[in-house]
Amino acid sequence: MAGDGRGVFSDVAAIFAVVFGDGRRFLRFAGLPGVAAVALNLAFVVLYPQPESQEEMAAWAAEAFPFMTVFWTVWAWAFARMFVRWCRWGVTGEDAIGFFTPGFGARELRLLGWSVVMGLATIPAFLFAGIVISAVTALGGFAGAMVGGEAGTQGGMALGTLLGLLLGFLPVMMVLGRLGVGLVPVALDRPSALLAAWRATEGWAVRLMWLMLLIEASILVPSLLGGYAGPAGVLVLTAVTAVLSLAVTAAFAVLVSRVYRETLGAQPGA
Is 252 domain-assigned? Predict the structure, then answer.
């Protein structure tokens, strides 16, 4: 994958081709929790439409909290099941799991635990992203004001925010990609290897950064269309976004599995 002469766009396209190339495998690996997660997304939009008034947000959040607890529990289950199945398939070729197999035991719980550790390790990168976004947004507003007054300020801040998001989250994607390789051993019932993965993927930093950004950005496409959709269209886009969320999890697992095979997995005794 690295140094094979192909660009990151073709790599990402190849990864999603693997994910969607066998619809039955995708459905089996998602399993019942994956379908339940998509259904919960649709139910949330129907049952708890977000209020337009900020004054109503607190009451809305309190009312939706019990549902959201179930929502995030099911999504955590779906993430763990998908990540484990795609990693095991990507490294060992293991493909034997049924749609109704629960796929939630000690292995998945360990994966979720180490995912939390990985998330905590990315906090400095997120803080850096916040600083960059604020600074670039302010600079964009200042530059816009110099060119076009008040209207230029708003346009400059909008462009600055977009540029700040890109520049700020590139390091976040790099950290998640490199540490994510260390989750693969957990899916294989081996000890976690976050620190070892960080060291082993030093030469992959830039490539993983762009690959992760493109994979994660794919989920934003339906969101960009949300403002133009009617009620029925919103439901369709919600379902598409939920399925893409599962696909992004699968793509992440396929990516880090491939990098694992070429780094940690290629080391003696792996």
Answer: yes
What contacts 83, CB < 8 A, 6 or more positions away? 111, 183, 187, 249, 252, 253
Does 102 map to a domain? yes
Total domains present in the chain: 1
Q: How many residues does the chain have?
A: 270
| Residue 26 to residues 183, 249, 255, Cα–Cα distance (Å) | 20, 11, 16
Distance CA 49, CA 195 (A): 42
- Whole-Å CA distances, 243 to 20, 67, 78, 214, 246: 11, 20, 11, 17, 5
Asked if residues 252 and 180 have their Cβ atoms less than 8 Å apart, the reply is: yes
- Among 35-39, 70-74, 102-106, where is mean pLDDT lowest? 102-106
Q: What is the pTM of this model?
A: 0.88
- Whether pLDDT at 35 is above 80: yes
Give me the DSSP letters along 129-155: HHHHHHHHHHHHHHHHHHHHHHHHHHH
In this structure, is residue 154 part of a structural domain? yes
Backbone phi, psi, residue 53, to 5°: -85, 135
Q: How would you class 8 by CB atoms within 10 Å of its CB: exposed for 0-12, middle for 13-18, buried for 19 or more?
A: middle
What is the residue range of 167's domain? 8-266
Tens-place pLDDT, residues 128-163: 989 988 888 888 877 777 776 666 677 777 787 888
C-alpha to C-alpha distance for 34 and 224, rounded to whole angstroms: 24
In whole angstroms, what is the distance from residue 12 CA to residue 212 CA?
9
